[in-house]
Every structure is written in structure tokens, then in C-alpha cells.
Design goal:
10 helices, Rossmann fold, 6-stranded parallel beta sheet, about 15% strand, binds NADPH dihydro-nicotinamide-adenine-dinucleotide phosphate, about 290 residues, 2 domains, about 40% helix, alpha/beta, single chain, 3-stranded parallel beta sheet
């Protein structure tokens, strides 16, 4: 068997096109231009790249990106004041504070200060609680992207045995909650799980969010299963260059799985596309409009 490759790049491009259509509709029908504040504290090079990429994608979708660059020495009190200002600004529909923050700032405090209605990362405890309670919420972008990709293979996930490897707050746990909301039978595994390969082999849908290069081997995968690889691991490549690999041994998995996301080009591009979708959802929720039909 050779697995079908789930083309995250193409699916993300399609989703971004649909979001741009929704943005045009909001402008035309409601005179609303979605705006997102992207807050960067300090000069972490990786964070600078992420912020630039997000702001560019926001602009390409026809939305307004309001960049707030604050110095590395910003105090927690100053950042909380800035967040409160953005909460009160009606032109700002979404607030994204790029993590990690400098060590003098408590990230959890900052996340908890963002208005839940503007929390387009879906990390606020109110949104986490709503997701866990099965209520409409802004949900984390990468997990949402995983579910959208899985549904391109299986339009209904109901009754599927899903195994999630990893239980972080930003990927593993919300993926599990979203899959549960889709009526899958979900098993969440982690570093203390016994005999992980056997547990993984039960999965019709296997989601790997571990951060360990190529840890999931071919013989961990049930023949025909759908595998979503969230991992992004930088490995030394040829000629002193870096290469990116996932948490799944791609070559081995390709021979066993029914469908598989590549790394790069799988979940990664979906994260930004789902962020754009979340901004539009936030605007609609804030203005009592029906959410986008995507
Ligand atoms: P974390 O380090 O926060 O969580 C890793 C999880 O994997 C933990 O729950 C941990 O278990 C579990 N784990 C670690 N080692 C093992 C093991 N040997 N066996 C079983 N479980 C194990 O990582 P994140 O969730 O933040 O990210 C996971 C991966 O996804 C990373 O590669 C990251 O770069 C990538 N990522 C990709 C994104 C994208 O846009 N594509 C976005 C976000 C993340 P325990 O809880 O017991 O410690």
C-alpha cells in the first residue's frame, strides 16, 4: 500500500481563499474590516519570522494587521496595559501575543487578560473550558488544522478510533477535544503511556504531536490508517544545512498508512489558514453574525 499524501499546502490555500471571500462579504454587507493586533515583545528571531508570516497572511486575506512591537525590557504591567487597550479597541477583533515572552512576563497572566472574544489563538481559559464543555468557542489553530485535514479523508470522524500522541495544552489536549466533538473514540497518550506502539496500532486516525523526530515507526501504524503528523523537528542535513522532519518516520509510514500528512507541507500551512478563519469567526461572534460556512 502507498499512502495518499494529504496536501496541507493546497488545502490551506483553498481555506485561505474561502476566508478571503468571507472577508470581502463582511466588508461589502456589513462595512466591517477584520483587524488583528499582533504583539511581539523582544527580538527573538524565530518569533520575528512567525509574526511577519502571520501579518503577511492577514493582509493577503484582506484584513488589517496592527503590529505592536515592544522592547525586550517591557514589564508585565506594561504588556497587560497594552492588552487592555487592545481589548477596548473596537477596530481590533483579534489579539495575538507571540509566545514565548521574555522571562519577566507571566504568559498565563497575559493570555488570561485577553478578551476571550478576541482570543484568536484559543488559549484563554474561557475558550479552553468552552471547548471542553462542547460549547461554541475560538479553538487553537494547529489542532483545528489537524481536524480539517483528517476530514478531507473522512468527512465524518464519528465512531473512528483516534489515538493522539502528546497532551500539551496547545496541541494534544485540544486535538483530543475536537476529535471528541466529532464523535471519534479518543485515546490520549503521553510519555508515561505503557506500550505506546500497541496503543497506536489500534488507531484508525493517529495524530502525532510529540516533538521527537521520526518516533512513530511504520509498525506502529494500523494498515490503512490516516496519520496526521504535527511534529516540526530541525535535523542536520546535507552540506551543513538544516532539514525539517516530523514525528513520524515518513518513508515507513507511507508503506502502511492509508493517508498521511507530509512534513513540511502538512499541518504547518494549516495553522496560519486556521488563524485567519478564527479571526473571521471572532468578528462574526462579536457582531452577532452567523459564522463562516467553511
Ligand atoms: P510539547 O513538548 O509541549 O508536548 C509534547 C508531548 O509529547 C507531551 O505531552 C509529552 O508527554 C509527549 N511525549 C514526549 N515524549 C514522548 C514519548 N517518548 N512517548 C510518548 N509521548 C511523548 O510539544 P507541543 O505539543 O507543543 O508540540 C509537539 C510537536 O508539534 C513539536 O514538534 C512542535 O514543534 C510541533 N508543533 C507544530 C505546529 C505546527 O504548526 N505544525 C504548532 C505547534 C507545535 P508528557 O506530557 O508526558 O511530557
Amino acid at each position: 500500500m502507498t499512502a495518499r499524501i494529504i496536501d496541507g499546502k493546497a488545502i490551506a490555500a483553498q481555506l485561505r481563499g474561502k476566508v478571503a471571500g468571507e472577508v470581502a462579504r463582511l466588508k461589502q454587507a456589513h462595512d466591517l474590516t477584520p483587524g488583528i493586533a499582533v504583539v511581539l515583545v523582544g527580538t527573538n528571531p524565530a518569533s520575528e519570522v512567525y509574526v511577519r508570516t502571520k501579518s503577511k497572511a492577514v493582509a493577503e486575506a484582506g484584513m488589517r494587521a496592527i503590529d505592536r512591537k515592544l522592547p525586550e525590557t517591557t514589564t508585565e504591567a506594561d504588556l497587560l496595559t497594552e492588552v487592555a487597550r487592545l481589548n477596548a479597541d473596537p477596530a481590533v477583533h483579534g489579539i495575538l501575543v507571540q509566545l514565548p515572552l521574555p522571562k519577566q512576563i507571566d504568559s498565563q497572566k497575559v493570555i488570561a487578560t485577553i478578551d476571550p472574544a478576541k482570543d484568536v489563538d484559543g488559549f484563554h481559559p474561557v475558550n479552553v473550558g468552552k471547548l471542553a464543555s462542547g460549547l461554541p468557542a475560538l479553538v487553537p489553530c494547529t489542532p483545528l488544522g489537524c481536524v480539517v485535514l483528517a476530514k478531507t479523508v473522512h468527512p465524518s470522524l464519528a465512531g473512528m478510533d483516534a489515538v493522539v500522541i502528546g497532551r500539551s495544552n496547545i496541541v494534544g489536549k485540544p486535538v483530543a477535544q475536537l476529535l471528541l466533538a466529532e464523535n471519534a473514540t479518543v485515546t490520549v497518550t503521553h510519555s508515561k503511556t505503557r506500550d505506546l506502539p500497541t496503543v497506536a496500532r489500534r488507531a484508525d486516525l493517529l495524530v502525532a504531536a510529540i516533538g521527537k523526530p521520526e518516533m512513530v515507526r511504520g509498525d506502529w501504524i494500523k494498515p490503512g490508517a490516516t496519520v496526521i503528523d504535527v511534529g516540526i523537528n530541525r535535523m542536520p542535513g546535507e552540506g551543513g544545512k538544516w532539514r525539517i522532519v516530523g514525528d513520524v518516520a515518513f518513508g515507513e509510514a507511507q508503506k502502511v498508512a492509508g493517508a498521511l500528512t507530509p512534513v513540511p507541507g502538512g499541518v504547518g500551512p494549516m495553522t496560519i489558514a486556521c488563524l485567519l478563519l478564527n479571526i473571521v469567526r471572532a468578528v462574526c461572534m462579536q457582531h452577532g453574525l452567523p459564522g463562516p460556512k467553511i
